[in-house]
Amino acid sequence: MADGPTGFGAGEYRRRWSALQARMRAAGEDALLLTGPADVFYVTGFLTRFWESPARPWFIVLPAKGDPVAVIPEIGAHLMGQCHVGEVRTWPAPDPVDDGIGLLTETLSALVPERGRIGVPMGLETSLRMPLADYRRLTAALAPRAFTDATDTVQRVREIKSELEVSAIRETCTLAARAFDAVPALVAAERKLDAIFRGFQGALLDAGADWVSYTAGGAGPGGYGDVISPALPVPVRRGDVLMLDTGAVKNGYFCDFDRNFSIGPPDDDTRRAQAALYEATEVALNRLRPGMTARDAQRLLTCALSERGATPGGGRLGHGLGITLTEWPSFTDRDNTELRENMVLTLEPSVEIAPGRILVHEEDIVLRADGPELLTERAPFELPEIEI
User: Fold this and answer.
1) Which of 172, 210, 214, 283 has the most CB atoms around its CB within 10 Å?
2) In three state form, how does the secondary structure of the chain look?
């Protein structure tokens, strides 16, 4: 097993394998079959933008004992050979007749007993990155081996971050903070929202991000309508609130937080909304503890906003964070996932100031035994003002 050019040392990956294998034993799983970019990266350190191409599937098999086996297109052999994996098996892809299924069947047949169980993540926030027809071929070829849902196996391990992972996320948050510092100058120079978005992405790269997978936000008088729309070539004006939200990536780990700016002085409604968001976040920073649930966190933020006369926004008010922009759990009134020590989470309360006019506030934290530790530099209590 090589010590790869990205990611962490071999000890971190062996820790991950052991943690997954312990849960596999508890679930009666003889192997895990992983197909998605995040899971492959988590188990091996295989970091590439080549996932943008949908032409080839990639497979990692983690047996109940031993090192993972990579069953991958031959174009990835050199990079995977530098990563944390026991064996690399390849085929010339893409192959319209047999795109790795024969090789994968052979691999799993050797590792899993005839009446064994193969775990595949099948639940919320998972996806199968291979053709469904090929998956059906695979399950038929491997019968009577059973394919079972390994969502819990994978998620319960990935949601607890090692200190190496926490440090990586903190580093990404730090570089994003430097990019946010450049926003006032960007607004003064560009004035139009789409140009500000492009400039902000450039600032993130200049600050050290490897890439910027996500940039969103909005701008409007005293607030904005949503936080997911693409930026339009419209000018920001005095009285607007500008929000930028980023999911920049460094060494495979995301940050996810936003910052709000007032173009000129904010109006009184916006000031009150900002104060409520800041104070509700402070409540969560002071009271959130391991053993609470995602639902408890949602309730904590919602009640804090309501007690301050604000109308809590709909949807989730925070989520997990790590090697994907958003991870489980979701801070909603339906998610009873237990919050555990060393989860990395976002606190993302929002308020509705008026119909079609919202304000969102987001910070990144790691949950310690005695409460949250900020990974982001805390946003100011009052909205920063930008004069144009």
Assistant:
1) 172
2) CCCCCCCCCHHHHHHHHHHHHHHHHHHCCCEEEECCHHHHHHHHCCCCHHHHCCCCCCEEEEECCCCCEEEEEHHHHHHHHCCCCCEEEEECCCCCCCCCHHHHHHHHHHHCCCCCEEEECCCCCCCCCCCHHHHHHHHHHHCCCEEEECHHHHHHHHCECCHHHHHHHHHHHHHHHHHHHCHHHHHHHHCEHHHHHHHHHHHHHHHCCCEEEEEEEEEEECCECCCCCCCCCCECCCCEEEEEEEEEEECCEECCEEEEEEECCCCHHHHHHHHHHHHHHHHHHHHCCECEEHHHHHHHHHHHHHHCCCCECCCCCEEECCCCCCEEEECCCCCCCECCCCEEEEECCEEEEECCEEEECCEEEEEECCEEEECCCCCCCCCCEECC
Specify the pTM: 0.96
Q: Per CATH, which fold does 163-386 belong to?
A: Creatine Amidinohydrolase (3.90.230)
**What are 203-255's pLDDT values in tens digits?**
999 999 999 999 999 999 999 999 999 999 999 999 999 999 999 999 999 99
What is the dotted CATH code of the domain comprising 10-158? 3.40.350.10
